[in-house]
Design brief:
64% helix; two-stranded antiparallel ribbon; 828 residues; single chain; alpha+beta; 28 helices; 12 strands; four-stranded antiparallel sheet
Length: 828
């Protein structure tokens, strides 16, 4: 089987295995062993199978497309003008060159080779459809795949981390195998809540989440992405609210769900703009049921005939210039074909006039709105810290390594369509996010919330990197961060499991009783701050990815001095990260115990929980390394660099003219030296300051908090974002809701009730009228008839002589009456 057929088969099976696990646990969960204990085995076996299949796909990919170090001058791409145009090729919407053949029965598959993408060799992608849901007019909805080096790497990363977390969770969630007494939920009689365990339901939701997350990664079109985008949101709601009897957990789940829907509303706007103007949501070129080739989004926005430079596609130009199109067609009403030809001839002029530029920007920012919600970016980041109400394995998988990184992944996947102005907006959103979240983490005392704000901050790093042109740097940090942040969350879970508290102020001195947890968490802390030896290129995984972000931000600042604040945000954020992460480690593991009751009961976690920590710590160290032959994650990701995105691009629609520099230029010696020194200095200063405050006690933390009490209070209250949002949005919405409710009950209901009362009164009068007049008349007539009948009945005696007498008298009466009548007539 060739690679084009093998990859969708392997990855498709890896994608569906967690769904099969979900179905089995859904229907047979409680019967899978004692109290559903076998559910962990089913879910773990499924995700291990997914990992094995993903690894096979990875090996197959690398065997077919070896990973080599790329020369720095091989990343050149097309140079795009400020309005997104690039000359006047004959065809503006020509699809990428590809070889098409049927590889799965009715499925269609494409191997796309884009020239000029900024690589020593052309980037390769495979795309196709498993099933067409609907095709009519321009609308085509399919279940399909888009596979490149990034897809394969993401599958391996997600399934490996998920495997570690499934193993870990089987030990962490063991309490759910028995009846639970929840001391945080009090019943009306004052007693604690008693409930049955939900062990199998936890792994059921975890399996569904893994299926949904892998669906986002393999999706071949934005419609499919959106479906699984919403499905991971539902799974997140299930998992955050796992302890739904707790008010805090149910509120956190609802908050996450509602805030994400706000971002998804913007995403829908972007989807409608793309489909309405371009008529497709497929990433790559595809073939319809009619056998005709359909260009995808990438080849429409960056056509090969334009050297893959970004421009506004013809369809979007005509959509934005609808009035001009209608005018041209009206002027050729007698010859419609000539009118169509005239429209096509004028498209280039309309493009030069700027038609469609704003629409392309709106489409990109709309898609980014969904990413703001999912990746907890400013201003929609407030849900993620509260999501720590869920079990710690959920925090490690869903809210650090995978779901929250889906927004970064989508920005990277959608990168060719994002205009330079959209990228700059993304960069500033990332900068604001990383600084706000890092500042709050400085004073947080809940060990999981420190890591939650750290996650928000690191996601801001990734967004900023993507926004300043660091496509590789942003996605590289996504992968390295997934390993060390999932490690850090699992370590925090191990601490909570041992101490039965999240409060770091009650910890201290745990390194002696929890050596495996403390050691692996130290590795995670060193990785996240980018610990390494400058210029020798020796360090942990974060050293390489963070240096890449710093270098690209520095290059962007030099090219655009007006936006230098972005570099300072990255550098400042690096120092804050080092401080709050080692504050966490020192408060938890170093020094003397601060609560002897907690310390006496603390113990190392069982092997089923520590083995995943060791596995993840190894990857937290080596994930950023590049082997002598050039094999490494960074070079593998670079194989998937979108065509045309490796060069310099110009922006200037929302902002004054600026340049998005080519990423390869950040490898220049002076940039590299400055970035490395900055990274080392900021990390070292942060660690030393944390040690001075929490180990050597040279600077007492309490004294600092007292001296800067207003600032400390401001940060401890999380910049008052929750209060501000409550004042600006929640209270007005509740007020409007109460007004609507009052209007409904006090006006509409009263009016309806009045109508009902009136109808009842009319019905009562009608009843009286019916009973008194109509029924009285009818009953009176009946009674009169009845009584007349009774009187006449008396005449019926049954005696013959009486009847003869009546006949005789009647006859005499008739003759007398007749005579009188004749007499009166003659007399007249």
């Amino acid at each position: 089987m060739d690679l084009e057929s093998l990859l969708p088969t392997l990855l498709g099976l890896a994608w569906l295995l967690p769904l099969a696990s979900f179905a089995v646990i859904l229907f047979a969960g409680p019967r899978l062993g004692d109290h559903g204990k076998g559910a962990a085995g089913v879910a773990t076996a499924a995700i291990v199978g997914s990992f094995v299949l993903s690894l096979m796909a990875f090996i197959s990919w690398v065997a077919e497309h070896p990973v080599h170090a790329l020369a720095h001058d091989d990343h050149g791409g097309a140079h795009a003008s400020a309005d997104g145009s690039a000359g006047s090729p004959d065809s503006h919407e020509a699809p990428s060159s590809h070889d098409s053949h049927d590889s799965h029965g009715s499925e269609s598959a494409h191997r796309t080779v884009d020239e000029g993408a900024g690589h020593a060799g052309p980037p390769v992608s495979y795309s196709g459809d498993w099933y067409t849901l609907y095709e009519g007019g321009r609308l085509r909805l399919t279940i399909g795949w888009y596979v490149d080096a990034l897809t394969v790497l993401m599958f391996v990363m997600i399934t490996f981390i998920a495997t570690c977390i499934h193993v870990y969770a089987s030990g962490y969630m063991h309490d759910e195998l028995h009846e639970i007494t929840d001391h945080e939920v009090h019943l009306a009689d004052g007693s604690d809540l008693h409930r049955p365990g939900r062990f199998h339901r936890f792994f059921q939701a975890l399996s569904l989440f893994c299926f949904s997350m892998l669906g986002i990664v393999i999706a071949g079109n934005l419609a499919m992405v959106f479906i699984f985008w919403e499905l991971v949101g539902i799974c997140s709601w299930f998992l955050i609210g796992f302890y739904y009897e707790r008010k805090s957990a149910s509120n956190a789940a609802n908050k996450a769900f509602i805030v994400n829907r706000i971002g998804d509303f913007g995403m829908l706007i972007g989807l409608m703009a793309l489909w309405g103007a371009l008529g497709t949501l497929h990433f790559a070129d595809s073939t319809g049921l009619d056998g005709h080739a359909r260009p995808g989004l990438f080849s429409l926005v960056r056509p090969p005939v334009a050297g893959h430079a970004q421009w506004v596609p013809d369809g979007m130009v005509k959509f934005a210039a609808a009035e001009k199109v209608a005018e041209v067609l009206r002027s050729h009403a007698d010859d419609p074909r000539a009118g169509v030809e005239q429209v096509e001839a004028k498209v280039e002029d309309w493009r030069d006039e700027g038609y469609g530029r704003w629409l392309l920007l709106v489409a990109g920012l709309g898609i980014f709105c969904g990413c703001i919600g999912k990746s907890a970016q400013f201003p929609l980041f407030v849900w993620l810290p509260d999501a720590m109400e869920g079990p710690t394995p959920v925090s490690a998988l869903v809210h650090s390594a995978t779901m929250v990184a889906a927004g970064v992944y989508l920005v990277g996947r959608f990168y060719p369509v994002l205009t330079p102005d959209a990228l700059l907006v993304i960069a500033y959103v990332g900068a604001i996010t990383l600084l706000i979240a890092a500042s709050i983490a400085l004073v947080a005392n809940d060990i999981k919330r420190v890591l939650a704000y750290s996650t928000v901050s690191q996601l801001g790093y990734m967004m900023l990197a993507l926004g300043v042109g660091g496509w590789l740097a942003g996605l590289f940090h996504l992968v390295t961060h997934a390993f060390f942040k999932s490690l850090l969350f699992l370590c925090s879970g191990s601490v909570i499991h041992a101490c039965h508290t999240n409060d770091m102020r009650k910890m201290g001195g745990l390194a002696k009783v929890m050596p495996w947890t403390s050691g692996t968490m130290l590795v995670g802390c060193l990785a996240i701050i980018g610990a390494g030896v400058p210029f020798l290129d020796i360090g942990l995984s974060g050293y390489y990815s963070k240096d890449s972000i710093l270098a690209q931000a520095l290059l962007f600042a030099r090219e655009n001095p007006a936006h230098s604040i972005l570099f300072y945000a990255v550098a400042g954020g690096a120092m804050l990260t080092a401080f709050y992460m080692f504050r966490l480690w020192f408060m938890t593991f170093a020094g003397q115990p601060r609560d002897h009751h907690v310390h006496e009961h603390a113990h190392e976690s069982p092997p089923v929980m520590t083995y995943p920590l060791v596995a993840l710590s190894v990857l937290a160290v080596v994930a950023g390394w590049t082997l002598p032959g050039g094999f490494g994650i960074a070079n593998l990701i670079d194989q998937a660099r979108p065509a045309g995105t490796g060069g310099t691009e110009l922006g200037g629609l929302l902002f004054r003219a600026f340049t998005v520099p080519a990423e390869h230029a950040s490898h220049a010696h002076d940039i590299h030296v400055t970035a490395s020194l900055t990274a080392f200095a900021t990390a070292a200063s942060g660690v030393l300051l944390a040690a001075a405050m929490y180990v050597w006690r040279v600077i007492p933390p309490a004294a600092v908090a007292t001296a800067a009490k207003p600032l400390y209070t401001f940060l401890a209250n999380r910049w008052y974002f929750d209060e501000i949002y409550r004042f600006l949005f929640v209270l007005p919405i509740l007020g409007i809701s109460r007004l609507v409710s009052a209007t409904d009950t006090g006006v509409i209901d009263k009016f309806i009730e009045g109508l009902a009362w009136g109808a009842k009164q009319v019905a009562g009068f009608d009843a009286w009228l019916d009973r008194t007049l109509i029924d009285g008349l009818v009953n009176g007539t009946a009674n009169a008839t009845w009584h007349a009948g009774l009187e006449l009945k008396k005449l019926q005696t049954g005696q013959l002589r009486q009847y003869v007498m009546f006949i005789a008298l009647g006859t005499v009466a008739i003759f007398v009456l007749a005579g009188l009548l004749l007499h009166s007539s003659f007399a007249g």
